[in-house]
Prior knowledge:
Shape of chain A: globular
Strand order of the largest sheet of chain A: 2-1-3-4
Distance between the termini of chain A: 16 Å
Shape of chain B: elongated
Number of domains of chain A: 1
Largest sheet of chain B: 4 strands, parallel
Structural class of chain A: alpha/beta
Oligomer: heterodimer
Low-confidence stretches of chain A: none
CATH superfamily of the largest domain in chain B: Response regulator
Mean pLDDT of chain B: 95
CATH architecture of chain A: 3-Layer(aba) Sandwich
CATH class of the largest domain in chain B: Alpha Beta
Radius of gyration of chain B: 22 Å
Amino acid sequence: MAEFEPKLIAFCCINCPSSSVTVCESMGMSIPTNVEVVRVPCTGRVDILHLLKAIESGADGVYVAGCSDGNCQFTDGNVKANRRIERVKKLLDEIGVGGQRVEMYRMSAAMGPRFAEVAREMTERVRGLGPSPLRR
Amino acid sequence: MIIAEQKPIQEIKAMIASYQKILVVGCGTCVTVCMAGGEKEVGIIATSLRMALRLDGKKPEITEDCIQRQCEWEFVDALKDRISKVDAILSSACGVGVQALAERFPDKPVYPALNTTFMGMPEKHGLWIETCRGCGSCELGRFGGICPIARCSKGLLNGPCGGSQDGKCEVSKEMDCGWQLIYGRLKTLNQLDQVEEILPPKDWSTDRDKGQRRILREDVYYEQTV
């Protein structure tokens, strides 16, 4: 039986994390193909509904990649995103899907390897959780 | 405004689980401002319910709408066609909105998605506090515009109680002492002499004690129902 390959959605800020994708690629490092990157102007734009809809639509996991602490161009978009992630975790636990399927990561523009590492880390976590119960 | 908060998803799910077609109706007034039951929250509630019910092996048709005010017939009536096509209504308005839908659509079961909590205002973004109990006989003029009934834990008209410390109530360190606020305000206004007066017990007959309250204004009243 083939190993379960989780479908992940990554909402990435167009600033630091998206630059780190470029750095990552220029270093010849690959991003797992199971991760679909959605670029947003700032992670402060990522709403609770975006995250819930992604899970409802069949994603096994969703994560948000924002700028590192204190580096948001809009002051605190990454902080707001983090708080929304916390609420979505609670909601998904309450619903029965499991809050561990969502996570918030922060990284600077130079952290190319970290972007790839996060993608693999989240893939492994969700692989451990198994397919979303909504898809079973 | 009226402040409310969302009920737990499992509690809402238990109420509507037996229906196939459900309309979630939000309200664009108070509960939108307190981020409990407006258009966005309707989306969150509906999406959460769809997922929760799918895990139980059900695939209900949950649709969404949000009207400007659930407490006025003109806006409620606009839902007539949509409500005729569903088995049940989930209202994310305050208790007034839930009852308005129940009265206008007597053949449809209506369920509340929120707990209506109090009348108040945002103290900070994301923090709401109760400021009015709607006692029906406003005494704010005596207390510098700060209500001892709503903001003193003991509702004392002749305060303070002596239990406050550093301006905080003995009931909770997160709660301002209502009487400390009243004292500070009256001092600023140079009206401290007002607290010297001992007030008799309040006439609570304007409160809830006589059942459902109503106000009739002859100058604007029409016999014809809207």
